[in-house]
Amino acid sequence: MNLDGIDITPAENMLAVRFLENTEEEKTETSEGPASVPFDRQEEAIVALVVGVGKKVTRAKKGDTVLLRDYAKYAPRVSEGSDTAIVEDYTVLATLTP
User: Fold this and answer.
1) How many CB atoms are located within 10 Å of the residue 77 CB?
2) pLDDT tens per residue, range 37-80
3) Is residue 3 part of a domain?
């Protein structure tokens, strides 16, 4: 599905964002058993461009470049293989200005 030129208006407190960095998980080989995550792991923020905003969003506006929490990469994508996702506004850590 090609979404170029389509205006996306998310629900009230949601943002539509286009990821500007690679958000694919690094693949690692693990032995049998559950994988462990170290407690000292630091969250890495993700840079994205806001392409749509819900009516109640106050943290960002369409066209802003924002820094999102790491888990935003797991947000629902607009279509399979797309770099555009719908995230909640509280995932915005900062608005970036040049």
Assistant:
1) 14
2) 554 556 678 999 999 999 999 989 999 999 999 888 888 888 88
3) no
CATH code at position 67:
2.30.33.40
Pick from 28, 89, 22, 95: which is nearest to 56 by CA? Answer: 89
- Residue 36 included in any domain: no
Residues with Cβ < 8 Å from 65, sequence gap 6 or more?
20, 47, 48, 49, 50, 95, 96, 97
pLDDT at 30: 43
On whether residue 85 sits in a domain, the answer given is yes
Q: Determine contact, residues 87/14, Cβ cutoff 8 Å.
A: yes
